[in-house]
Amino acid sequence: MKPLNSRIENEWFALNEAEEALKSLGFSYGGGWEYDHGYFDYKLDDEVGYTFLRLPFHVVDGELEQKNTTVQFDQPFLLAHKYQVGLDDHASTGNLSGSFNQFSEPQDPDASIDHKWVKIAKDLLLQAENKLLT
Fold this sequence. Notes:
- By secondary structure, the protein is of the alpha+beta class.
- The protein has one domain: TATA-Binding Protein, CATH 3.30.310.
- Helices cover 21% and strands 29% of the residues.
- The protein has helices at 15-23, 115-133; strands at residues 2-3, 12-14, 28-29, 37-45, 49-61, 70-73, 77-82.
- Strands 1, 2, 3, 4, 5, 6 and 7 form a seven-stranded antiparallel β-sheet that branches.
- β5 (49-61) and β6 form a beta hairpin.
- The longest helix has 19 residues, at 115-133.
- InterPro entries: Uncharacterised_YugN-like, YugN-like_sf.
């Protein structure tokens, strides 16, 4: 994980307006939503793993499922995971349903981030700041 400085950090926005602005740049809702916080993600790379620019936020008024929710952005960061090559060391089958976990654990859940992605992420973050703050 690599934190990035941003002008949107600590700024408040209507969630629906932030969503509209960020989706127009290619961001989507990231995983890990809770009732009081969430993420907008932009996938930068997915060759040997994945690299995302992540814009975290938390609710300051309302609830995420309401129309007029106000959110505050936290510090953006780059997140990289490297896929495990081969079979998962911890693969298991379900005991009652006969199902199995088909997804490998990441080889490196906090992989180093190539400098080219840092520059691209900073440029994209500037676009997001300009879109949100104007």
